[in-house]
Design goal:
This protein is mainly α and 274 residues long. The protein has one domain. It is 75% helix and 0% strand. The protein contains 12 helices and no strands. Helix 11 runs antiparallel to helix 12. The chain is globular. The two termini are 29 Å apart. The mean pLDDT is 89.
Length: 274
């Protein structure tokens, strides 16, 4: 749901300002919950550099690339390019050999990717390859790399020391700093005074649901089942987006998309059994 909701908010607020406000508020929420539950916000000095990298690149640069990419290209292009995230993650894991990858896991990830193509490239959508969208498409791919490598893969060793709550909070803290730096150089006026109620609702959703809850659960998944198996769940995003748009947005549902959803579930099942 996050793609459509955030895209709607961009009609009234600059993407970088939206991202900076979103992750600043998320930081306060998560660190507050962390202190309440764990009684401490301490991190070791030796880990500050790695956490800065995870947050600065995995949250900050990721959001800069994702926000501007989504603003400069079509929603279909963005969704399709984002389905490459697990592939980047799998390749990175294979290069650094941080996890063992079975043939079954690789085949499952490949199946899920094919299923995602069926879901996203619906007959009335299509991918628009135009000169006007190239910049947005490239930025979206860079965002995928930042998320898969920095936010996910580089964070896994830190989850042996810190809870998903604490790591998410500090990642968002450093990420929001990067976002404010980019926003200060790119945006002259915030324009917050003219925002409608619907845009504030979009911001609240982006902060509390996809921001706080979504990121915490993502890190908890990596901690419990590993990176490669967590990344493949990214392919559930097209299924939920398809169902949400069909049930609440009045969009058509095609047999091709239903087939793609079934292939995604088969790929995830095969990966999880590896």
């Amino acid at each position: 749901m996050n793609f459509g909701i955030v895209k709607f908010a961009y009609n009234e607020i600059h993407p970088l300002i939206f991202g900076a406000i979103r992750f600043t508020l998320s930081t306060f929420f998560i660190l507050g919950i962390t202190f309440w539950r764990e009684g401490s916000l301490r991190i070791h000095a030796r880990d500050i550099g790695n956490i800065c990298l995870v947050g600065g690149c995995g949250v900050g640069l990721y959001q800069v690339f994702w926000s501007l990419g989504l603003d400069w290209t079509y929603a279909t292009n963005s969704a399709l390019l984002f389905s490459t995230q697990p592939l980047f993650g799998i390749i990175y894991v294979w290069i650094i050999k941080s996890e063992s990858l079975s043939k079954s896991a690789c085949l499952g990830t490949g199946l899920a990717f094919v299923g995602a193509l069926f879901v996203i490239l619906r007959p009335d959508a299509g991918m628009h390859i135009e000169l006007s969208t190239v910049k947005g498409d490239v930025f979206t791919l860079l965002a995928c790399i930042c998320f898969a490598i920095f936010f996910s893969a580089r964070a896994k060793p830190l989850l042996k020391t810190y809870s998903a709550l604490r790591l998410t909070g500090y990642s968002m803290l450093f990420g929001s700093i990067v976002l404010w730096i980019f926003a200060s150089y790119s945006v002259k006026e915030t324009g917050l005074s003219g925002l409608t109620v619907n845009t504030w609702i979009c911001l609240a959703y982006a902060v509390l649901i996809s921001g706080v809850l979504g990121h915490i659960l993502w890190y908890e998944g990596i901690r419990r089942i590993g990176l490669s198996k967590t990344l493949v769940y990214q392919y559930l995003v097209p299924i939920w987006a398809m169902l949400f748009n069909f049930l609440f947005m009045g969009e058509a549902l095609f047999y091709q998309q239903i087939l793609g959803g079934a292939v995604i579930l088969l790929g995830i099942r095969k990966t999880m059994k590896s």
